[in-house]
Amino acid sequence: MRIVFTGGSGKAGRHVLPFLRDQGHEILNLDRVPLGAEGINDLDVDLTDSGQVWNAMTQIFDLSELDGTAPGRPDAVVHFAAVPRIGLTADNVTFENNVISTYNVIEAAVKLGIPKILFASSETTYGICFAQGEVLPDYVPVDEDHPTMPHDSYAMAKVANEVTARSFQVRSGLDIYGLRINNVIEPHEYAELFPAFVKNPDLRRRNIFAYIDARDLGLMVERCLQTDGLGYEVFNVANPDTSVDLPSAKVAERFYPGVEMRGEMGEYETFYSIEKARRLLGFEPPERWRDEIGTS
Questions:
Q1: What is the DSSP string of 217-255?
Q2: Is the separation of the CB atoms in 264 and 141 below 8 Å?
Q3: For position 68, what pLDDT does the model report?
Q4: Which of 26, 35, 36, 53 is deepest in the core (most CB within 10 A)?
Q5: Residues 245, 209: contact at Cβ < 8 Å?
Q6: CA angle, 16 as apex, 110 and 19 as ends, to 5°?
Q7: What letter would DSSP give residue 272?
């Protein structure tokens, strides 16, 4: 596929793009900072400027495309670019940037008739990650039917983006999938972070005790690209195991007393359910962190 990918130089994108390239896709990375990776084209674009977004999606990926027949529209757009959390800019700037950029990207993709549009949503939409104080989920494992109750400007923007995406899907009939991505972990972060998580599981409460390996996020994007005809859907994205060295029954007992438990869980099964992605997309990421740091 010819893929326009936004935010490919960020924490997640710099792992996802090489994975997609290695699957044989042609990629144009729209980012203010170039990735500079072999075989991936970079373009400096301000995504809050709708004219720049439109032009980026309708121009060539690389100068080599000047030879021969001009390529047609992209086959897919994957939108990951965003201010990545609260606390980096003023709250109104975070909200404005993340909402307007997403609107511009999806609007251009829909009006160009690009048949597959993916966008990054977030675990924060459930109102737990960036809440003031402690907020418990209505039930566990948390699945996509759980209410979205944003407590902050970042999560508010993500919920607004889901509404935007659904509206554009209704009017176009295209496939638009939202990825509610959990805490992204890069390979080097296992040794840096997870020993502390093992020692103090409380550190993972705001992430619903879940994580997604950046490399496996590439697998999720690929499964979405290869799965057609779902219309509008949102998917939780996480690895199948928790990010702490407590059995899930102990996590529930310690952190979720009185919270409804929906169904039986495996010994170390994630509380951030990926059952929907497994069922509809065939998403089967490996368990990761125990192998990475040698904990049984």
A1: HHHHHHHHHH-----EEEEEE--SB-SSSS-HHHHHHHH
A2: no
A3: 86
A4: 53
A5: no
A6: 110
A7: B
How far, in Å, CA of 218 to CA of 191, rounded?
21
The third-level CATH classification (topology) of the domain covering 2-187+211-240+271-293 is Rossmann fold (3.40.50)
What are the residue ranges spanned by the domains of the chain?
Answer: 2-187+211-240+271-293
The pTM of the whole model exceeds 0.85: yes
Euclidean distance between CA atoms 87 and 213, whole angstroms: 23
| 3-class DSSP state of 179 | strand
Assess contact for 123 and 208: CB atoms under 8 A: yes
Rounded to an integer, what distance in angstroms lies between the CA atom of residue 278 and that of residue 239? 11
Beta strands in the chain (DSSP E): 2-6, 26-30, 41-43, 76-79, 116-122, 139-140, 175-181, 184-185, 212-213, 232-237, 260-261
Six token digits for residue 190: 């296992």
> Residue 282: helix, strand or coil by DSSP?
coil
What is the number of H-type helices and E-type strands within the chain?
A: 9, 11
User: What does each C-alpha distance from 180 to 112, 192, 246 come to in angstroms?
Assistant: 25, 25, 24
Task: Take residue 85 and report the two structure tokens written for it.
Answer: 């959390």
Backbone angles phi, psi at 27, to 5 degrees: -130, 135
- pLDDT at 16 exceeding the cut of 60: yes
Dist. CA 195–CA 203, nearest whole Å: 11
